[in-house]
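Hi there, hope your week has been kind to you so far. For a while now I've been wondering how a particular protein folds. I'm sending you its amino acid sequence along with the backbone structure tokens. Could you read through the record and tell me how the tokens relate to the sequence? Take your time with it, there's no hurry, and the full record follows here.
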Amino acid sequence: MKRIPPVNPFDASRYIGTVFEIGPNAAHVALTESSVDSVEVGAFVVADCGQWLMFGRLNNVQLPEQDGGGDGPRAAAHPTAVIELLTTIGLDGDGALRGIERFPHLGSRVYLAPPKLLSWLFECNQVRETGDGDYQPVLLNLMSLRDGTQVGLAPERLFGRHCAVVGATGVGKSWTLARVMEEAARYAAKMILFDSTGEFYTLNSGVRHVHIGTDPTGTETSDEVSMPYNALTESDLFALFKPTGPTQGPKLRAAMKSLKLARVPNLATGGVVLKAGKLKFPFEKAYAARAKEIEDPRAFFDITKLAAQVDAECIFPTGGFSSNPDPTRWGAPNEIERSNCVSLITRIEDMVHAPELACVFQPGEMRTIFDEIGSFLADDAIRILRISLKHLPFSHDAREVVANAIGRHLMELARKSKLGGRPLVVVLDEAHHFLNENLAQQDIGIPLDAFELIAKEGRKHWLNFCIATQRPRDIPEGILSQIGTFIVHRLNNERDRLAVENASSAADRTVLAFIPGLGEGQAVVIGADLPLPLAIQINKPTQEPDSRGPNYQKLWR
């Protein structure tokens, strides 16, 4: 299909000057006197290159100093501008090409780009043609240009190589996410939102709301679901219980394996496998028969017995006496090891019975988050599954561990092609809470790496993510480097800007200079699959998230 600009790019009324110097990335333009008042930094321009059109941005406009001592009027100096060369457009219908295929010539005429040309340029190469006569492309109506011209963004360009929405507090990240999901819900989308603060309860079109954790206020309108501990892995439990020192880690691991054997007849007493002074052979025989089950990383055992089992593991490795050891039996209780494990035993007891962690350790018959995900993927009427983590405590890294377990589950479904035949986008609000978490203890590294696996592997399995964060510097480089599209709101911290700059292509970095001056709701969208970086205004969502701060004038009066 021919892609031809919808407007005349060489409107005489928009003529501003001619090219007098050309470099590999920029061109210098001598401006006409009449265009000085209409030319401003950041404006987009086009240059006539015959059958090609060069598209660029004004990065510098100046009025050089006059020769001869500067006594004459400054207005007599010749105004010039520097154009950053962005992309090339084929006027014969080839559309826009990322990069510079043709350069302007000396004397090429330069014009201010019409807004319709800019929106067409951004949209024309985004969507693949299907050959259907009445084909209507899926374009998300997220943003507009400064003059109000709407610009669509195809979901494959926004999410196809993962997406990040970054910006300081209060500049519009939540609005952007709400608008993204609102637009996605107009189509047959599938998105799962991790709502860290609970502010997206306002979403109501095609959305299923659930929350993990007990609501102490009783005002939650969503349905509570559990994250059962037996769906967690050994690493997850290590991250929660945080064994320290050279003793606690091995004893915790041994206790988990022993409890998996507790169902073997005559091997356990009161659900606990007591080893002190017992023959090893029955344990070894049971282990050999159930090795696959025991080595399964999932926690298929009674968690309420874990503290007692850790205590039962604090024994000498062999029976008898040092002068006459008996390797066929376990030894007597080891009080030194028991003393070293007291803090771990107490921590396990407290956490397993904590009301705020009942959704993990005391799930009962409550519906699980995995049940909800399965139902969501099978239900065509539900576009978005919102999982609120507002009521999960920050203590013990519970939010990070639960989110990582859900991410790992989604990756497993994707690998098995069980996403319901549609691409799935996982949205992480306040992503710095869930990513860059390496809960390393003294001798035990516990990476929470599910989302890093999604970043590296998910795309080929139709699983992508969109993260929103005010602290891109805290996102691991391995994740940030995999992100293809950035929607960048104002960033005040230099390290945050540098993190985004390092993750962007060289062609996109110059536009990042505009970021500190962006207003509320304004952003720069850049991406590997987009023809050029673009400064935009995010359209206001109709379902605004509840992200407002307190009203001091009312509450302090």
